């Protein structure tokens, strides 16, 4: 992290305690309580899925404890004051995918959650026109279709006319797949070879798949292509203007070690448009107080139900009985906590390759988990600035107040698909992208509480950066800062004066994301969202029902169906499955 420039208010802030939601060190989150030696269920990790699972387990009547390694709850959905006076959503930074059932059933608004919707939501400034001596152009997308079409028409009237049809086409696919997120995947092995009870359970997943097929109807082949083809091919079928195609393509590759020409990248696009916010399909917004405020609302809901959450309680091993069943966990300090159920919000690799005794797992299962693709291209840079970025394509107001585009996801180096492809190719050669894809967000444009008056917090979600550099070289401070400087040079080209406005920065490469947040390989989804690692193949075939080869041990994090993003579905689904099994124990 770059040292902050001195400011009077900065010195005062530095003397104050950090304001971190849920950041009570080594404590029980909620009413005072001490860690007991036995519970019905233990949840490993207080990421958002772990908190959701704990809430539903407690709603089902189980005495539940959540054990978190870090000093605060939330996993990657945290707010941290890493630069005095500035509060950052340090890893995840936008909300959309959280399941509406969780909002309602856990009464998250009553527990403090406040969401700030964005409209407009996407802004792509261009460099080419400015370099040619012409007025810079930009593309602004929002909820008003007429305004959005007017923006697109700058580049193509044909594309402007096609855009509403494209939106309707994608929304129909979302409506078909959406119910699959809240159900256990079809258990093929159970359906074909299991007991009568297993076959009846498997029928639930089969019915959900059949309903999805009926929803898509005769257009099923076209929708199949969306899920399997490169996003570049899909967008070429609909549009001709490069700025629009590149802007839409960012949602297909964000967080993925994949380029726009990679087969199957269309599904990742779908994954990012299937959410909703305040009842609006596909909308994304900021959380007031940062993403840590969402995690705190989930923790509040869980503790209100009676769950107990403890920070700085790192789990060292999952305990098994003599007959191979889960019977609790052992902490790093040697403390043993007994339980009949263990739900792990950690990644599949950490859960099964490090925490679970290997001799109790089938060799083929271990092999498949060890081969689970968790490559990540992401480097997240959190930046404190003393003024709003001032873009050439949309100059700031004289009073310095945020303009509509400042609340958007601002896409830089996204003028055309080829730029995205080249950035990906650089990383495939072990090099950080020479002109990285950048998604720039300024949450303080809608939530001034995150920064001192007149100042702002800026999130730079960038790719592509390989986990290991060419020649097997590891990231060091020089490599990290050189890459951040390159990113800042790119931002400066679009918004002159940006570098001079920087107060401090926090640079998180893939190894940093892994070390701090437990994201394997730095992957924000706990594993690639590729078709071979989705639905009944997540994390591995025959174990997609949240259960594991160890009776009583469940996976409830993003490495399970339906995958990554701040969605909560894996936590809710896993808890329901565990509750169902608990009744039979």
TrEMBL record:
Its EC number is 1.4.3.2. One of its GO terms (cellular component) is mitochondrial matrix. Transmembrane segments: none annotated. InterPro entries: Amino_oxidase (IPR002937), FAD/NAD-bd_sf (IPR036188). It is found in: Mitochondrion matrix. GO terms for molecular function: L-amino-acid oxidase activity. The keyword Iron does not apply. Residues 1-26 form the signal peptide. Keywords: FAD, Flavoprotein, Glycoprotein, Signal. The keyword Transmembrane does not apply. Pfam families: Amino_oxidase. Residues 50-576 form the Amine oxidase domain. It comes from the Eukaryota. Its main location: mitochondrion. It is an enzyme of class 1 (oxidoreductase). Belongs to the carotenoid/retinoid oxidoreductase family. Interacts with COX5B; this interaction may contribute to localize PYROXD2 to the inner face of the inner mitochondrial membrane. Probable oxidoreductase that may play a role as regulator of mitochondrial function. This is Pyridine nucleotide-disulfide oxidoreductase domain-containing protein 2.
